[in-house]
Amino acid sequence: MQKINVAFRSKVRYMSRGDILFNIFNYSFMIMLCIVMLYPMLNTLAISLNDANDTIKGGIYLWPREFTLYNYQYVLKENTLLNALFISVLRTVLGTAISVFCTAMVAYVISRKEFIFRKFVTIAFVLTMYFNGGLIPTYLLMRDLGLIGTFWVYIIPGIIGVFNLIVIRSFIEGLPNSLVESARIDGAGEFTIFFKIILPLSLPVLATVSLFVAVYQWNSWFDVFLYNSSNPNLSTLQYELMKILQNTNATMSGKTAADAFANASGQSNAVTPASIRATMTIIASLPIILVYPFLQKYFIKGLTLGGVKGE
């Protein structure tokens, strides 16, 4: 401990005034940046844990003024939420696994220079990022494929993500080509090379893409509205939360802010669109927040290594 203190003092002693000013500015800027990034989530959490009528008065910042769990009780009391949660989890897990696996296979194919149609296939995929058939033709296509009213309408249309395809392809192209050539000399086929060499080395970028796909699958609700709104057994958590918010807005539409403020001291078990919106945000964000720390190291590594080309 004494050696560390001596080393620290000697380091500070030889720092110039410019270095000290830079460190002060750098630390101050990073602290302010952390505050700016964390405040919206902490404020949303405080509103979700605060009495709805009291929230109307304003002045809720980092902690609730009148603590209550009624907002969460109101949202979670719906009988359909448990099944919707199961569908959301199943959709996120299956959709992420299938999409990442299929995208990685296509990315490996178009990353091989010996594949003569690699440029044509790449351009065909990239064009879909700029042009699409539109909402009505897409709906008609899903209907003709027999996907309306089924669970697979959440999975099949998003099997290949073009942006994720480009990211994985760039990463694979950065891997040493000598590994693939050595495997081919030893008699390994393309599937063996893909499963035994490419996939293990591509874990960082696969984890990064998995996070992208999982967030999309978890937060998606518009496709439920389009294709499965008449089937409550296939409803997702996000769609059910959206319906709760709509019902709350419809209930409160006949009340003015003045009426709600006048009743603030009376009814304690009440909800408002603002309180429900904050509660829904916390519920919807919590799973991603819990998963992200386990993927953070792969996420950062995948983004930094994705653009590095191998020799």
UniProtKB/TrEMBL annotation:
GO biological process terms, semicolon-separated: transmembrane transport
Main location: membrane
Bilayer topology term: Multi-pass membrane protein
All copies of domain ABC transmembrane type-1, residue ranges: 85-292
Coiled-coil region list: none
Annotated keywords: Cell membrane, Membrane, Transmembrane, Transmembrane helix, Transport
GO CC terms, sorted: plasma membrane
InterPro entries per record: MetI-like, MetI-like_sf
PROSITE patterns linked to this entry: ABC_TM1
Gene3D superfamilies, alphabetized: MetI-like
Segments passing through the bilayer: 20-42, 84-108, 120-139, 151-172, 193-218, 274-295
Subcellular location: Cell membrane
PANTHER family, A to Z: ABC TRANSPORTER PERMEASE PROTEIN MG189-RELATED-RELATED, POLYGALACTURONAN_RHAMNOGALACTURONAN TRANSPORT SYSTEM PERMEASE PROTEIN YTCP
Family statement: Belongs to the binding-protein-dependent transport system permease family.
The protein, known as: Inner membrane ABC transporter permease protein ycjP
Species of the source: Anoxybacillus ayderensis
